[in-house]
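dumping this here before i forget
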Amino acid sequence: MTNESIQQNEVKSLRPFAILWGGQAASLFGTRIVRFALVWWVTDLTGSATVLAGATIMALLPQVLVAPFSGSYVDRADRRKIMMVADSLTALSILFLSFLFGLGIVEIWHLFVIMFVGAVFGAFHFPAMQASTSLMVPRKHLARVGGMNQGLNGASNIVAPPLGALLYVLLPMQSILMIDVGTAFIAVLCLFVIKIPQPVRERAVEETSILIDMKEGFVFLKSWRGGFLLVIFAMLLNFISAPAFNLSPILVKNYFLGGAEELAILESLGAIGTVLGAILLSIWGGTKKKIVTSISALVLEGIFTTMIGFVPTTAFMVAVSLYAIVSFLNPIVNGALIAIFQATIPPDKQGRVFALIVAGASAMSPLGLAIGGPVADFAGITFWFILSGIVTTILSLAAFFIPALMNIEEHADYGNDKQEPSEEIEELEEELRDVLME
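structure:
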């Protein structure tokens, strides 16, 4: 097979993923506009870190409570249909919230319920999307796709905050919410026109149950010492950093005495940093050991987060610059880690293991916010930036001296052959994807 033929086959095999990615990009863009408007509505209405923390907790709880079950279901069912149903039901929940705003009877608790329901659907969507990616994208491109995904998150946040702030002034909330409904329809349409290959399971679905699948996913993660330690590591970091970054609207309103425009500036410039970091990872691909890339970026992230906490109230743009630097480092941290997981976890277990990783990593965020909201109202939001930055820096430096973490990629190729696949094997894998996509 010539190099030209290989390139043509690779482009063809990536076309369904490009359609899937494009639809999800549109949906994410709409969701970010609506999220900005809703977050500022809550912040402007209450000015309370505790209330904002409560709303965020509602969006995080399903990742802890539902994700272990949803991941097992993802490995048993059609992942394409799961994403279609999740996107559709999320759109219906937003449509209902728009109806409440239109009637003028919406209350804070309504928003809490809708956020919880949407997060439940998201707990099914995320593992289905991540597990599908590893079957649709050649392994050698996974780190770059990770960078693309982080870049998408950043790009949506460049445009969404200022647009959300503008729409917040010009349109009633019920009209803004309909944007999310429309972009969700685009995502469902894109899923409708493609096929997503299903993994070959070690055992037939009929021979197992969801509880058995959950146990298998947990056993895999527990036996993978580096992966298990990484989840514990993420739990500690999320507990301590959740109040700082999830309550940044309170930083803008109560500390810098700003409004929706200042919040839009903070989030947009932070998003530009995210895009630049994602572009760097997409082009570079990271160091040979991806864990070195991730942990090194996390050390720097901790240092700059600490600095945000010491910025005086008169230097808002200095805080914005530091926030942008932290945002630049974040996709490098996350993109490299996701590439490690996608290249390491067996395809037929990725749904449940990804869900367990998300559940574990997110488990401490609601607790951190439950404590962080009242503490921020009492001691100030900058307290959390200082504490979060110091703890992140110390833990990240300590990670370099933990062999199980630094050798996490030795579990690659699904725990069997630890050698990198040859070019011939990669070509065969890509040809097999072509057949599956037909």
